[in-house]
Amino acid sequence: MNIKDIANLSGYSVATVSRVLNGHTNVSASAHDKIMSVVNQYNFEPNANARELKRNEKDPIAVIVKGRNNLLFADIIEIIHTTLDAIGEEVYVAYLDEDENEVRFALRHQMASNPRGILFLGGELEYFKQHFGMIACPCVLITNSTTSLSFPNLSCVLTNDEQASFDIVNEIIKAGHQSIGIVGGNLSQGQISARRLSGAIRCMACHNIGFNIHTHYEPSRYSMQEGYDAFKRLIARTPDITAVYALGDVIAIGAMRAAIDSGYSLPCDMSFASFDGIQGARFCVPRLTTVRQDSTLLAQYGVSTLLKMMSTAEPLPVCCIVPHVIQQGESIIKPRT
């Protein structure tokens, strides 16, 4: 028998069972009594790993960052640090490759350090579906939605990526562009890029603009070099495009450099739009028109949601949508005729 068996037999979550076994006080009397009756009935003895789960009230909150080149995450992490430091909370930050399984990493970290809570920055939902049930502590996923999942200890804070993507592509279309390429991310339904791509395609469909995903979309990782290479592949295959929508600012910056190196004048020969609103977007030449996510609210809502979950005996998962704005730049103009 293990902790998951006790959870199933008692009717409570793994997180609640873990709190009872570790002597936490933020558990209702009825939950405590029911769980302990199951423990006593089956003579359950916590194994070595369970004993390691005995919590120190000052164990650091973990922040697991998916992707090392995401400058939006850098802004969010700074605010998380400042917010938690102000209330005396320690923070442990781990940076993962964007293809790494963040939930498996969280499981290893739980066994080694037993954080009281975890903030995920970015995430692949398929990994959460497969492995998150083994994580006991409260968690918040920032920038991706968990509404399709059913874990009681997992909340989310995010921008409405699908609608924001619709809004930014609408800016391109209003300028008169009819042939639009898209670079960045991939087609995995569990990642943010799928929702951004969906919003862009929906916008074009509303304006009766055709979009062939096999010719007008080029995937890439979230980095400037990857954006550079993706634009080169896209323009070689589809040279008639007049505008490019990048699914992240760092991708756009690399793609814009590639366009210039390919002989295009920006924005006269090629318009660009993007997503995130990092500081660097305002210093590009031309300044980048982009969706600005509110990194301050994403961080603050993420922290406040996690702290509330940590202090509640039976927390309920929440989904908080942070508003976005279109940050106007100089990178979209009417196409040449």
Automatic annotation (TrEMBL):
SUPFAM superfamilies: lambda repressor-like DNA-binding domains, Periplasmic binding protein-like I. It comes from Fannyhessea vaginae PB189-T1-4. InterPro entries: HTH_LacI, LacI/GalR-like_sensor, Lambda_DNA-bd_dom_sf, Peripla_BP_I. Pfam families: LacI, Peripla_BP_3. The keyword Chloroplast does not apply. Residues 1-55 form the HTH lacI-type domain. Keywords: DNA-binding, Transcription, Transcription regulation. This is Transcriptional regulator, LacI family.
